[in-house]
Amino acid sequence: MRNQWVSLQRFFDLREFKKYQADYFLYVSQLLQGTQGQYTMRSVFAADIQRYGPKHYRGRLSAYWLSQYQKNGGNLAQTWKNALSTEAWLLLKISQVQGSQSLMSALETLTLQLQERKQFRNMLSKLFWPVGFALALLLSVLFLMPWFTVPQLQNTFYAVPEASYGFYTRSLFAWAHFSQRYGVGILCFFVLVITVGFYSLPLYVGRGRVYLDYVEPWRSYKALQSLAALKLITLLLEGVSRQLRLAQALQLMQATPNKWLRFHLKQIELKITQGETGAYSFDVGLLSKDMVWFLADMEQSQDLVTALGLTAHRLQQVLAQRLPMQAQIWRWFMLLFCVATLLLIGGWHYAVIDELRRALLMFYAS
Predict the structure, then answer these.
(1) Where is the domain boundary, 308, 323, 338?
(2) Are 201 and 122 members of one domain?
(3) Which regions in the chain score pLDDT beneath 70?
(4) Would you say 266 and 230 are in contact if contact means Cβ atoms under 8 Å apart?
(5) The predicted structure's pLDDT at residue 196
(6) In 170-310, beta strands by DSSP E
(7) Domain check: are 205 and 226 in the same one?
(8) Predicted TM-score (pTM) of this structure
C-alpha cells in the first residue's frame, strides 16, 4: 500500500515538475557550465534535497533522482527517464555517451526545446480554452436533452396523444430514445477512436500512415518529429561529435522508443547502405518533398551538417507560421460549430414546444 502511495505521489510530483522543467534544465546547464565540472549532478540533487525537503515536490523528486543516479552509475538519461519526453530522453542518452561537452550542449538544446514547447503550449491553451468551454457546454446540453428536457416536455404535455405529435416532436423524442439506449456506447466509441488516434501517432507505420500524414494531427506530428530529428542529427554530427558519420548517428538515434521515428531512421540508413548518400537519403517520408528539395539545394553550397542545420531552421520557421494559423482556423471552426449546434438545439426545442402547444389546444378544443 505504501509503495502505491509513493508511486501516486511521484506521478503528481512529475506533473508539477513538468510545468517548470524548462527553467530547471536552464538552471542545471548554467550551473554545470559555470562551475566547469566542480559542481556535479550529485551535488545538485543533494542541494535540492536539503533546500526543499520532503514536503516539496522538488525535494522528493531530487531524493528519488539521487538514488536512481547512484543506482544507474551516473546515467542522467536513465535518472530523468520518467521526467522527459521521448525526444529529450534520446537527446540526453546519446549525448552523454559522447562526453561532458556534448552533454552540456545537449542540456542547452534541451532547454531551448522545452522553452519553445512551453511557449507553443501557452499559445494553444490561450487559443483553445474558449473552445473547451463551448464543447463542455454543448456536451452538457446533449446529455441533458434525453435525460431531463425531453422527459420534462413529455410530463408537461402528457395529455397530448402520440398521434397528434408533429414532425419535430417525433424526431426529438426518437432522438432522445436513441440516445438513452445507445448514447453510452457511442461515447465509448468516440473515446476509443480518439485513443487509437493518439497512440497511432508514435506507433503506426503501416501503409495507411502515408495518407494519414497529409491530415491533422498526423501532419503536424510528422513535422514536429522531423524537426526534433534534424536538430538531434545536427547536434551529433557537429562540435565534439564531428568524428561521427551520418550512418553512425542514425544507428545511435534508433534507440528511441518512438516506433514511427525509428522506422524512418532505418529507412534513411538503408538508403545510405545502398549507396544513396546526401540529402536525398532523407526522402523516406520523414521530411516533406519541399523540405527534401531545400536540403538538397543547401547541400550544393554547404556541407551536409550545415545543410541539415539550415533545413531544421527553415522547418522551424514554417511551423512557427503554419501552426498558429491552423490553430486559429480550428478555433473559429469549433466555436462556430458549437454555437450553431446550440442554436439549432434551442430552435428545435422551441418548434417542439410550439407543436405540442398547438396539439394540446386542438385536443381540448375537440
Answers:
(1) 323
(2) yes
(3) 1-3, 36-37, 98-100, 239-244, 366
(4) no
(5) 92
(6) none
(7) no
(8) 0.77
Q: What is the pLDDT of residue 192?
A: 93
User: What pLDDT score does 98 carry?
Assistant: 67
Q: 80 by DSSP, 3-state: which? A: coil
CB 103 within 8 A of CB 117: no
Instruction: Cell numbers for 320, please give them.
Output: 512557427
pLDDT in tens, 164-220: 888 888 898 888 888 888 888 888 998 899 899 889 988 888 888 888 888 888 888
At 223, which CATH number?
1.20.81
Side-chain-facing half-sphere of 274: CA atoms under 13 Å: 9
Distance (Å, whole) CA 65 – CA 77: 11
- Say how far apart CA 99 and CA 241 lie, in whole Å: 9
- Inside any domain, residue 96: no
First to last CA, the chain: 71
User: How does DSSP classify residue 204?
Assistant: -
Cα separation of 95 and 309, whole Å?
Answer: 17
37: left (phi over 0), alpha (psi -120 to 50) or beta: left
How many Å apart are CA 6 and CA 151, to the nearest integer? 47
C-alpha cell at 77: 538519461
CA-to-CA dists, residue 213 to 34, 74, 222, 314, angstroms = 43, 39, 7, 20
Counting every residue, how long is the chain?
366
Q: How far apart (Å, rounded) are the C-alpha atoms in residues 184 and 355?
A: 30
Cα–Cα distance between 211 and 215 in angstroms, integer?
Answer: 8
Q: Which domain holds residue 179?
A: 118-211+327-365
Q: Is 317 found in the same domain as 275? A: yes
- The whole-number pLDDT of residue 241 equals 44
Q: Is residue 64 part of a domain?
A: yes
